[in-house]
Design goal:
The complex is a heterodimer of chains A (105) and B (427).
Chain A: E1 3-7, E2 13-17, H1 24-30, E3 50-53, H2 55-58, H3 66-73, E4 82-84, E5 98-101
Parallel strand pairs in A: 1-5
Antiparallel strand pairs in A: 1-2, 3-4, 3-5
Chain B: H1 12-16, H2 18-28, E1 31-32, E2 39-42, H3 45-52, E3 58-59, H4 81-87, H5 102-113, H6 118-142, E4 144-146, H7 147-164, H8 168-179, H9 195-215, H10 221-226, H11 238-269, H12 271-279, H13 284-295, E5 300-305, E6 309-311, E7 314-316, E8 321-325, H14 326-329, H15 365-381, E9 383-388, H16 390-393, E10 416-421
Parallel strand pairs in B: 2-8
Antiparallel strand pairs in B: 1-2, 3-5, 4-10, 5-8, 6-7, 9-10
Helix pairs in contact in B: 5-11, 6-7, 6-15, 7-8, 7-11, 9-11, 11-13, 11-15, 13-15
The chains are: A alpha+beta (105), B alpha+beta (427).
């Protein structure tokens, strides 16, 4: 199974194996990291699973949809490498994908 | 009667006011097991969150029948995962998405996510607006209505039918079949009848739609659904597609219709609030969130512990059945200031648990929010006053309100309204 690297809000780096058929949001939640609220449950509707993707991996991921972009754009933490982690499939992520959970708003 | 003697699953007093009962349990302990049944109640916000987000240690297999029905096996040891999978098919309701666990749940749920993204809802919005406008104009012209059956149930049924792309000619039959069915979690177990036949009726239609669209793709939602792929690129069985489509009707109708009823009850009991929202309909979305927190349509959901584990320092044995009281978590005084008061504009109100949390978070929540907002907007626009019928429900100091006899659903069986036309009525 592919490995993910997640930087938590406290700056701790956690690495774990993720189920390829899940989303990065689901994989982070299932790893026991409790910092992603994902209050819409993963249907691209709330922006509470916002992460920053390590710049080295941004171009390796499928592009953001317009829905995803418009939700992220309203966030205080929006950057060029912002993604909703529910919209990234682990199967589409390159080995070692590194994401940082953005500060709570 | 003492707390310990009440049975949440059958008690009519608790049915009428579950909030007092939950508050009493909470005052004992946010994770507490009252005497009558082998069932643990979770009434704290953090504790409920922790369990809902932990799909590794807690299974959803009993989410439909609830914790009232015994498991079909005797849990043995500190990890019952294997036993549970072996007996899963014997648990009533185990063919429904809300009871799935793990990869199977993730995969089947993924078939539906594209239906609820903002752009899809936007495409659905024109239909919702048109339907809400017509429905509201009709009842305002009559001056009164029974909100649940005249307005809410047909409205939410037609909205989900449109979202799924059900042909217009078939929608009326869907509406009739659903209007005749009971909600889940009926407290009168022996009267629990025919909800299976509703699902069968819907399933027959969807088998036809999916077969047709797989053979003859069109530019419609049913084609998109019929040809949806699992995240690993494989094609689901016909039955999986039919299952999730039918599930949307089963799960979304009662809850959304009851939410409309609960909203209108708040508006009719607080005329100042009603007028405030009428003058500024931009506040309707925030109003709905606070109704969801205080009187969400789903009172409780259920889990069973797969493994011996701990929640907030308390040990939970493998096989322990758990009632997660969502509506109690939404009134936890550690999370919400003055939790029993109706307050517009609470900070982070959307974190309430009315739609659950974690892997099984209500997938239709964005639709429920959108459809209820549109209907309330039209109701406020076309009226100058909405009141409860004194004839049917009694005077304000002595209301007679009947709640659906369900240990899952919180909602009125009927709500008779009187509607005075407003400025929008003739426009």
């Amino acid at each position: 199974m592919p490995r993910l690297m997640v930087v938590t809000r406290s700056g701790e780096e956690r690495s774990f194996e993720a189920n390829p058929s899940s989303s990065v949001m689901e994989a982070i939640r299932d790893s026991g990291i409790d910092e992603i609220a994902a209050i819409c449950g993963g249907c691209c509707s709330c922006a509470t699973c916002h992460v920053h993707v390590d710049p080295a991996y941004v171009a390796k991921l499928p592009l953001r949809s317009e829905d995803e972009y418009s939700l992220l754009h309203g966030s205080q933490s929006f950057k060029d490498n912002s993604r909703l982690s529910c919209q990234i499939r682990v199967a589409d992520a390159a080995e070692g994908l590194k994401v940082t959970i953005v500060p709570e708003e | 009667m003492l707390l310990e003697e009440r049975d949440y699953f059958t008690d009519r007093v608790v049915l009428k006011d579950p909030y007092d009962y939950f508050a009493e349990l909470f005052s004992k302990d946010p994770i507490y097991q009252p005497g009558l049944r082998d069932v643990m109640f979770v009434t704290g916000f953090e504790e409920a969150n922790a369990i809902l987000r932990n799909a590794q240690d807690f299974s959803s297999v009993i989410a439909v029948t609830g914790a009232a029905v015994p498991l079909p096996f005797k849990p043995a040891g500190d990890d019952i995962s294997e036993q549970l999978e072996h007996h899963r098919h014997e648990v009533p309701g185990s063919e429904i998405l809300v009871t799935y666990d793990g990869p199977r749940h993730t995969a089947d749920r993924a078939l539906l996510t594209s239906l609820f993204v903002p752009s899809r809802l936007k495409a659905n919005q024109a239909y919702m607006e048109e339907l809400a406008e017509k429905t509201v104009r009709d009842v305002v012209a009559r001056g009164k209505c029974e909100l649940i059956q005249d307005v809410a149930v047909p409205y939410v049924t037609l909205v989900i039918a449109d979202l799924l792309g059900v042909p217009a000619d078939d929608r009326d039959s869907f509406k009739e079949v659903i209007a005749a069915g009971p909600p889940p979690g009926n407290i009168d177990a022996e009267e629990r009848p025919h909800s299976d036949s509703i699902l069968e009726h819907l399933a027959r239609h969807f088998v036809g739609y999916v077969q047709d669209r797989r053979a003859h793709p069109r530019a419609d939602v049913l084609t998109q659904l019929a040809n949806a792929k699992y995240p690993d690129g494989t094609t689901p069985e016909l039955s999986a597609i039919v299952g999730v489509a039918v599930f949307l009707f089963a799960a979304g109708q009662d809850t959304s219709a009851k939410l409309i009823g609960n909203c209108l009850r708040f508006l009719t009991e607080d005329k100042a609030l009603q007028q405030q929202l009428r003058e500024d309909r931009g506040q309707v979305a925030g109003f709905i969130e606070e109704v969801l927190r205080l009187q969400g349509s789903t009172k409780v959901t259920f889990r069973v512990a797969r493994r011996k584990t701990k929640v907030a320092g308390r040990e939970i044995a493998a096989g322990q059945k758990i009632v997660i009281a969502l509506s109690a978590a939404n009134r936890d005084p550690r999370r919400w200031e003055e939790p029993n008061e109706f307050t517009l504009g609470r900070k982070k109100i959307q974190e309430h648990l009315a739609f659950g949390r974690g892997a099984h978070t209500c997938i239709g929540a964005p639709l429920a929010r959108a459809e209820v907002k549109i209907l309330l907007d039209r109701l406020l626009y076309h009226t100058s006053d909405i009141s409860l019928s004194v004839e049917k429900h009694g005077p304000p100091e002595n209301r007679r309100l009947e709640y659906e006899a369900s240990f899952i659903i919180r909602g009125l069986e009927n709500l008779h309204l009187e509607l005075k036309p407003g400025i929008g009525a003739n426009s």
